[in-house]
Specification:
By secondary structure, this protein is an alpha/beta fold. It folds into 3 domains: about 5-60, 434 Repressor (Amino-terminal Domain) (Orthogonal Bundle), CATH 1.10.260.40; about 80-230, Rossmann fold, CATH 3.40.50.300; about 235-295, no CATH class. The protein is about 60% helix and about 10% strand. The chain has 17 helices and 5 strands. A 5-stranded parallel β-sheet has the order 2-3-4-1-5, sandwiched between helices. Helix 5 packs parallel to helix 6 (about 110-120), helix 13 packs parallel to helix 16 and helix 15 (about 255-265) packs across helix 16 (about 270-280). The radius of gyration is 22 Å and the shape is globular.
Length: about 300
């Protein structure tokens, strides 16, 4: 499959503005080509593709990853994960602003990483207690921009580079923490400005993310958030199928899918199953020994 223009741009290390300047095309034209919305002469798109391919070759970049046609072949997805995939695809295409929430372990991060890898998205993982300056500095470094100067200077550089990009912020609930309404607004305002500058944005996190945003109150910032999707929990049948696929070398472990799924539903879904499967392999198929090492909250 042909490497996407997004992937080529990312591998080149260039911003949309730099590509427009060096290729002699308008920023609007470049943005449309990169995002698959250009309806003009095919020669323009071909010329930009050759330009980027030459730039990547000059950098000596590693071969770009191949992308599966629909990106979904690695494993079956739950209905919730498919909905998350569709949401991210819609936001990327429309340069919109959305929030994606779901319980820990339901597969949000897997979808984020797979989609980001396949479609050249910029994936940023938030950190607990992050300051506004720290967030802006991290985003500048993510986009290969200078992180020098004050917050206003950093924000200006980010907005200048935002057109046509797609940013996924994983674990965005960590940005909220126990912050005051004012501080929540200051952090979300960063993503609002990037969205207004032409960048598609998806904030991904636990359900507390939605609660924190709602608690901050109705403002013009939140009126810009176009979509909200709750990633539903996988069914017991799906969890059992996934468990059996992880331990298919151990028939006795496969037969204990019932109690394993019961614990997984209470303690982390797919993440729990994957950790438990690793222990089962270390214990040569002994599920009881593996379960004995898994952490369980008091009273669980």
């Amino acid at each position: 499959m042909k490497v996407s223009m997004h992937q080529l741009l990312k591998a080149s290390g260039m911003s949309l503005g730099e590509l427009a300047l060096e290729s002699g095309k308008s920023k609007s034209c470049v943005s449309q080509v990169i995002n698959g919305k250009y309806s003009g002469k095919s020669e323009v798109e071909d010329a930009l593709r050759r330009f980027l391919e030459e730039r990547v070759a000059q950098k000596g970049a590693e071969a770009l990853p191949e992308v599966a046609p629909d990106g979904l072949e690695e494993k079956p997805l739950t209905p919730g994960q498919k909905q998350a995939w569709v949401l991210m695809d819609m936001v990327r295409r429309q340069h919109d602003f959305a929030v994606l929430v779901g319980a820990s372990g339901v597969g949000k991060t897997w979808v984020v990483n797979r989609y980001g890898h396949g479609y050249g998205a910029d994936v940023y993982t938030a950190r607990m207690g992050q300051s506004l300056g720290g967030l802006l500095g991290d985003l500048c470094r993510l986009w290969n921009l200078s992180s020098d100067g004050g917050n206003d200077a950093k924000m200006a550089r980010l907005c200048e580079a935002a057109m046509g990009r797609f940013l996924i912020v994983d674990e965005a609930d960590l940005l909220m923490g126990n912050r005051t309404r004012r501080n929540v607004l200051r952090l979300v305002e960063v993503f609002r400005q990037l969205y207004e500058s032409g960048c598609g944005v998806v904030l991904v996190g636990l359900p507390v993310l939605h609660k924190a945003l709602s608690a901050a109150g109705e403002t013009y910032v939140f009126s810009r958030i176009g979509y909200l999707r709750q990633v539903g929990s996988p069914t017991d049948d799906f969890l059992a199928m996934y468990w059996k696929s992880l331990v298919d070398d151990y028939p006795e472990a496969m037969e204990k899918a019932g109690p394993v799924v019961y614990q997984a539903r209470r303690a982390g879904f797919f993440r729990y199953l994957e950790k438990l499967a690793d222990l089962v392999r270390l214990f040569s198929g002994d599920v009881e020994e593996a379960l004995g090492l898994m952490f369980r909250p008091s009273g669980a």
